[in-house]
Amino acid sequence: MENRIVKIDPRRMTVIPKETSASDGSRANGPHDAEQISRLRASQSPIAISLSRCPTWSSLDPLRFRGYWDSGEKAILLNNGSTAYFTFTDQSVRPILSGGPLLGEYIFEQMHFHWSVDDFTGCEHVLDGHGYAAECHFVHYNSKYGSLEAAVGHPDGLAVVGFLLETVDAPNPRFDRLVEGLEAIKKNESVKNVTSEALSWMDSDDLSEGSYVTYKGSLTTPPYTECVTWIIYERPVQVGAEQLSLLRQLEGPNSEPIERNVRPTQRHPPGHSVIYVKQVKAKL
Ligand SMILES: [Zn+2]
Predict the structure, then answer these.
(1) pTM for this entry
(2) Is 284 a domain residue?
(3) Which residues form the Alpha-carbonic anhydrase domain (predicted)?
């Protein structure tokens, strides 16, 4: 077996980064940790994750989200027959994700949702056995490959940020702009013009301070390519039950509501690792 990537101190459940080859004996820092994650074995996605069994890292750089919801740029929300799909109209508008487990910059391509008929089986990833009503995916491609299509052919091609959505009684006003769009795309292949404000619900301190899990995995829709660095935030985002019900009202090609667009959890292959990342509050 090759060098082990991590050593676990069972008393603290903290991963000690593998010694680097730096001749000066300096400690591994953020980018080195990201390199270690980039070499982890990939699995099929989604997976069920037990947080207490994940090595915990706190030395990664904070995740950085630039230009997502505050640009005012034009975008569309589309019912493509299998999900609600958001993308910017002008392809030169490029929100950028970097930091955390990622090496380099990843360019935002699209956001979409997964859901089911109830409030507990609509998420794809399952953390500590908890199911939620829906899961939202922000799909990005590695800037060095130039396009999503080209990036899918590479193990470091995509980065997908996942948010678990939990229903609560009261509507969440941060979803108002998105909800306006969802109300207009009930029919299959319908499109609504929106703006970047439809993403404003993600504007939260949790992005740079919240804990998340990361692992190397796959697309959860065909062709299931293992090209994704997954980043799943631990804390669910709360959404009003009526707001969430708009997803369940979206109609597929047969004019019936799309009941379920969730891939079941997949088995972890031997030697597969999921890292639990506690983000350290960014220093000002
Ligand atoms: Zn997805």
Answers:
(1) 0.89
(2) no
(3) 20-279
Cα of 15 vs centre of ligand 1, distance in Å, is 29
The total number of structural domains that make up the chain:
1
What CATH number is given to the structural domain containing 183?
A: 3.10.200.10
Residue 209: inside a domain: yes
Q: Who surrounds ion ligand 1 at CB < 5 A?
A: 137
pLDDT digits 0-9 by tens, 248-270: 999 999 999 999 999 999 998 98
Its domain, for residue 172, covers 6-277
Ligand 1 centroid distance, CA of 23 (Å): 42
CA of 126 to the centre of ligand 1 (A): 14
Could you tell me if residue 128 is inside a domain?
A: yes
Residue 167 lies in a domain: yes
Ligand 1: distance of its center to the CA of 14 in Å?
30
- The values of phi and psi at residue 175, to 5°, are -95, 0
Ligand 1 center to residue 137 CA distance, Å? 5
What's the pLDDT tens digit per position in 77-113? 999 999 999 999 998 888 999 999 999 999 999 999 9
Query: pLDDT for 20-44, tens place per residue?
Result: 333 443 344 566 889 999 999 999 9
Please give the residue that has the higher pLDDT: either 49 or 1.
49
